[in-house]
Amino acid sequence: MARFPLPQHLLAASCLAVLAACSSGTSNSTPAPAQATAPAGPYVTEDIAVFQEPWAMAFLPDGRLLVTEKAGRLQLVGADGGATPVEGVPDVAYGGQGGLGDVALHPDFANNRLVYISYAEAGEGGTAGAAVARARLELEGGTPALSGLEVIWRQVPKVRGQGHYAHRLLFGPDGYLWISSGDRQKFDPAQDMESNMGKLLRLNDDGSVPADNPFADQGGVAAQVWALGLRNPLGIDFDAEGRLWEVEMGPKGGDELNLIERGGNYGYPLVSNGDHYDGRPIPDHSTDPSFIAPVLDWTPVISPGGLLIYSGDAFPQWQGDAFIPGLSSQALVRVELDGDQAREAERLDLGGRIRAVEQGPDGSIWVLQDGEDASLLKLSPPAAPVEEGTAPDA
């Protein structure tokens, strides 16, 4: 991988430069005011809009953007940065880490218009669990809406508490749906094959189980499992060679970047490079080689919120690098990948806690900050300087 000096952060704001037609309507998001500063590094930052507790985003083929907000709102963002609420979102169990989570498009979205969402779903007696549903996104006519919504997956069992849902969604290059399922702060389910918590799951697009999953012959929820022994896996992505990477929050120390193997056991809660929050030690990965150790880990933690392996042309120097949105680290962490190895290269200071990152249609990098009044940011390469005596293109 190429090596580059640490870029200095700059803030510049302008209107959105994606391809789409704009949306109109009222929502809790607002276009950001225009503010500009001269470039100071290999990227410029545009402040596009502001959202309330945003969690994830996905680009439509026309360049518009879907953004989820934890309280249960799905927003359709247009070319002017304005947003229109999408109707038909199911009720969510909002609180703590729970609420509306990820959003992903079916690989054949252009023809079937299917959108997948994850969310915390209430159960009986104060319990809750993650769920994944799919629906058709209706954009013609008036208000955008989800129609024909059906739940295709649920965490088993539902439990008390409001943490570690994880529920990141990803369609892989082979068309399978990948779901990250957190341990719900219950520890032991990550090793229990009668639960699909603390696991990475591989499903068909309708929620059924592929016959070649590693534990398919066990039946039940075990058949869904591709890898186990995970704590709070909040980011998954494939590199250009088809390797699947996963990033997760560790306990007190020991955030992990893992290279996922078919049927692999990553050890939690039996091993970890962190310890329990109450001070109880957890044996390190090095004490038990029967479990797969992380390729990279962090103490102090970065509190990862997602994962993007960059493949665009806008930043050729970053092709193949992993970008991890950091919450407690308040940075976009860039990691250089080299085959099955990884090293942290730099941290991009974007002015606060970072919840999510996505690659735009033009190769730009889009970032959602975390919390109330959180900004949607677009990172683009700076414009080429105009030589003296020449005029810019009309």
From TrEMBL:
Keywords: Signal. Residues 1-20 form the signal peptide. The keyword Signal applies. InterPro entries: 6-blade_b-propeller_TolB-like, Glc/Sorbosone_DH, Quinoprot_gluc/sorb_DH_b-prop. Residues 51-378 form the Glucose/Sorbosone dehydrogenase domain. This is Glucose dehydrogenase.
